[in-house]
């Protein structure tokens, strides 16, 4: 099964409610997959208004550790010193968000792997933050205070594992490129061969999970110049198996289902938002849902929206 | 009219109440409010009662229905009217995947569109869709009638047995062993009755009939390419 929710806001006045709306939607989907849950939030621009840098110079890295007390302790100072730059760290339970100059992301990741090898990188980018853990959506969302988060769009997933172990890293969303993320309901049958091809293209993987391969595939396509829509179109040819994907980019939000389309999907659109749910139940509390255009995305058809 | 607020009473109480109605009950009109996409609303009914659900439903609404007349004043999630035995179910909006799957009797009317696998493995149910239907509809359909006033998606009637299919619009593609057939007077009459019962003003003469070529009933090595 697995449950997916997504919300792409058109009306900026809803941005302060993004976290609470997404949490409510995801909790409703709990019985579709209660083993792990995760949310990607496209929130504030990293470092906006700080340090005299223009915001686009600053990026964020979301980190995760099973032992946050020791792993995050002193990390801000250590990284600031070694990178000779002002790095900020804000921790939330097992996760922490680093804000740092964009051109130091790779250096910071290398240092982290060396200094704190138990830390995992959930995402990097200007606005994305990913929080995911084993557990029920309600518990996971509240551990990270997701309901209080603001942002322009977000994607949530509640997992019933089929293709890899129930671990934090096996939870969705998966992020394989800056400000990109993907959630998946279904199972891919050609993920091992595709993973080998992507590794030859220089892509690295954190897990044995099939959905991470789909995320990496789309990242690879976009690295080669494809738009999100084009990457999703080519995925229809190259990804074999069952899938409903919801993907996010810095400014975009996309949905695609495989040609068989047995994994459920419902969408709603109003002047104020575009919403996705594995079931209509997930959408019932959205503003003016009774007046929304509600439809099922067609099989093998790419849908995407951009800000 | 009896009203049950699902948000207040819960699904189990709703279904127990509706399922406990006798054939001679005098409480024949029921209104269900606040369905909010819940699963398994009004399943397993077996009494000649009218149930109106005010809003959209989730999985398996009206499943296994006998005798009852159920109206969904909204859209229906996957598996609406699954294995219906008799009675009538009307969806005012759209229906999701596998509407009417394995149904053995009764009439399912979908006023909007139905998505994929509508009438899959139907075994006697009649289904009238005012709009379009998605791919793989009437897959392995054994008996009954599927009427589509709009268009049909890919692989209509794949591995079809004896169900009758009527489509007014286009068919994107026919499934294995499904072929176009002549409309004879008895088909026009059958269609006229079903369209009238389903509240459609479509003309029976505008439909095309599809049925089984009967080549895949038993495995035959000469037909291996068609499987």
% residues in beta strands of chain A: 25-35%
Oligomer: heterodimer
Biggest interface: A-B, 17 and 17 residues
**Distance between the ends of chain B:** 52 Å
What is the general shape of chain A? globular
Q: Number of helix segments of chain B?
A: 3
DSSP helical segment count of chain A: 8
CATH first level of chain B = Mainly Beta
User: Which CATH-level-2 architecture of the largest domain in chain A?
Assistant: 4-Layer Sandwich
- What is the CATH class name of the largest domain in chain A? Alpha Beta
The CATH superfamily of the largest domain in chain A bears the name Aminohydrolase, N-terminal nucleophile (Ntn) domain
Topology pattern of chain A, helix = H, strand = E: EHEEHHEEHEEHEEHHHEEEEEE
How many structural domains can be distinguished in the coordinates of chain B? 1
Query: What structural class do helix, strand and pairing data of chain A support?
Result: alpha+beta
Number of strands of chain B: 11
Q: Largest sheet of chain B at a glance?
A: 11 strands, mixed
Mean pLDDT of chain B: 96
Walk me through the structure.
The complex is a heterodimer of chains A (307) and B (227). Chain A is α+β, with helices and mostly antiparallel strands. Chain A starts with a strand and ends with a strand. Chain A has helices at residues 18-28, 68-71, 75-83, 105-115, 137-143, 191-200, 210-223, 228-238; strands at residues 3-9, 36-42, 58-64, 88-92, 95-101, 120-125, 128-134, 153-159, 181-188, 241-248, 252-257, 266-269, 273-277, 293-295, 303-306. In chain A, helix 6 packs parallel to helix 7 (210-223) and helix 7 packs across helix 8 (228-238). Chain A folds into 2 domains: 3-43 and 135-306, Glutamine Phosphoribosylpyrophosphate, subunit 1, domain 1 (4-Layer Sandwich); 44-126, 2-Layer Sandwich (Alpha-Beta Plaits). The model of chain A has no long low-confidence stretch (mean pLDDT 95). Chain A is globular. Chain A is built from 8 helices and 15 strands. Chain B has a single domain, classed as Pectate Lyase C-like, CATH 2.160.20.60. Chain B starts with a strand and ends in a 15-residue tail after the last strand. Classes of the chains: A alpha+beta (307), B alpha/beta (227). Chain A binds chain B through residues 259-262, 264, 266, 279-284, 294-296, 298-299, and chain B through 36-38, 56, 58-59, 75, 77-78, 94, 96-97, 115-116, 134-136.
